[in-house]
Sequence to fold (222 residues):
Amino acid sequence: MRILLAEDDALLGDGLRAGLRQRGFQVDWVRSGDLAEQELRAEPYAAAVLDLGLPGKDGMDVLAAIRRAGVTLPVLVLTARDAVPDRIRGLDSGADDYVVKPIDLDELAARLRALVRRAHGQTQECLAAQDIVLDPAARTVTKGGTPVALSGREFDLLQTFLLNAGRVLTRDQLEQHLYSWGQEVDSNAVEVHVHNLRRKLGPTLIHTVRGVGYMLAKDGAA
Fold:
């Protein structure tokens, strides 16, 4: 899943980006509040990690501004401000979670996965459809209990479909979920990944909606 990281400390930001990428996230990194607000208003991120002490525009002001603008994505506030009033203000301004530095990367990844699940109405750690089960933490997929080997991009695409079950997604939307800045996208990349998922997981899992895009039907739906 694609997230935005807003952190002005170069060393910390680089470490967070690298660590989250190792844990399966596509990470776009900005270093100012103005850029963070601009990106969050414009791009369909799954979640954001927002430092409060950003130059240009304070992270708290960024958070309040995007909420006023109707941006509903989950926001995890990452900050050195550990006073209770600061935490209360952050949550009241629209933060979904609040973590004080320093933080363990595994915990940060787990918190982000939980935020994204809840934002999509998912209560269980694993995502499932038909006899397919995807474990976001372990990054494993099984079909009828048997492990299925997927590439990283195939895994991310399947996770996107499962989180958005019953919703038609266009190719552009899928590309935005799968690729972060600077990653080259082949013109038929989504089609190739969908083909591979159908081959490995069955032809009825992902439906083509002609002229629009693709959809993974909710269990019990045609």
Remarks:
- The longest helix spans residues 105-119.
- The mean pLDDT is 89.
